[in-house]
Amino acid sequence: MNFCWVTLPVKDFKKSLDFYHGVLGLPITSKHDGGGMQMVMLGEEDKPKIELIFFPGNESTDFASDITVGIAVESMDLAMELLKKNNIPITRGPIAPNPNIQFVYITDPNGYEVQLVEMQKWVLPLKV
Asked: What are the tens digits of pLDDT across the range 74-122?
């Protein structure tokens, strides 16, 4: 089995799409608008996706409890510059539990916690 996507119900479709696509740069894979809802799949082809789904009338629902979305970044320094440029505060971090990984937490427009993570390639020690 392979992980396909995580579905996030959202309060404001435009703000959510602007955050994940416009700011974080996740590509739009597919989009649907009709039947009383809006939906978009975000992420690279053949990789796990984030599905944003909006049902008008659910704007006041608290969806965000205990959900964290993890997104890999190539450079934490560049990610933090992007956050600053877009006035997105870091809620926790940067945290570096070991030399190969560091991450920060931010909050999306719906209150979901988003973890931006930079991982270095794991280097196995050589036996001589």
From this structure: 899 999 999 999 999 999 999 987 788 899 999 999 888 898 989 876 4
Q: Is residue 27 part of a domain?
A: yes
Closest of 8, 11, 45, 43 to residue 24, by C-alpha: 43
Q: Where does the pLDDT of residue 1 fall: very low under 50, low under 70, confident under 90, or very high at 90 and above?
A: very low
| C-alpha closest to that of 111 among 81, 91, 85, 83 | 91
Tally the domains of the chain. 1
The token duo for 2 is 């392979």
DSSP letter at 74? S
Beta bridge partners of 125: none
Whether 23 is covered by a domain: the verdict is: yes
pLDDT the model gives residue 56: 85
94: domain CATH number?
3.10.180.10
Residue 66 belongs to some domain of the structure:
yes
CA angle at residue 71 from 95 to 37, to 5 degrees? 135
Provide the residue type at 25 as one letter: G
- Is the pTM higher than 0.90? The answer reads no
Rounded distance between C-alpha atoms, residue 117 and residue 71, angstroms: 6
